[in-house]
């Protein structure tokens, strides 16, 4: 069988997994920052459609989704469908939450669901201290006025729950190495596109004649769902699931910094203290051996 994609495993081995995670963390919220700017022109569901549709198109070029699905076992197909549906609903609920809540808060809530995953992977007292520091930092980042928008919180909670599903399913996809993981990710993204097609196509279609907005929507997809998800696979293929989950504490800090630069959501002293605690905790953590 001739593989359409190769070389990711070698790339993953040559660069420390923490570096791949760092790239993923930046693009994980850089893309959504640009997406928020498109909400008034394209609509929340339309931007979500552009994100998944453009990512699926790129993965069709990089991988062979149909072949991967056809040659998978029934259990493997279940993994692809589960990951695809998870990506579709998670990305949509994420944007619905961002429409009414600050990005740093949505990111902090994403991390809450990963605490259990990180706890499961603990093996040493040092890592327990690291977890305590990172959790403390995340909760410092959560503003006390967060209960003022229950609808936004609902979508943020849905996104946070599915983010845990993404970690678990994504790690299983990467279990046989980065090459296989990226191939499975491509098939899952096509399934996500098919699931989201009837939901966001109406809003997205209203701007199909505007080349600027179409290109912006494609850019959101590449920044949000291609670069970070591939980097996640490169990182997941080498990091234990618990270690990867703990490193996700960097996401609220990254979101706060990017929101300040792109959306002018300037962090407070409290935010900076939370970021410092998160980074200290992640720096202390050591993968279980």
Describe the structure.
This protein has 289 residues and is mostly helical. The protein has one domain. Helices cover 80% and strands 0% of the residues. The chain has 14 helices and no strands. It starts with 7 loop residues before the first helix and ends in a 5-residue tail after the last helix. This is EamA family transporter. Keywords: Membrane, Transmembrane, Transmembrane helix.
In short:
By secondary structure, this protein is mainly alpha-helical. It has 14 helices and no strands.
Largest sheet: none
Average predicted local confidence, pLDDT: 79
What string gives the helices and strands in order?
A: HHHHHHHHHHHHHH
| Uncertain runs | 1-5
Termini Cα gap? 35 Å
Q: What gyration radius follows from the Cα positions, in whole Å?
A: 18 Å
What share of the residues lie within helices?
A: over 70%
Number of helices: 14
Give the total of domains.
1
Shape: globular
Give me the count of strands.
0
Helix/strand/pairing class, anyone?
mainly alpha
Range of strand content: under 5%
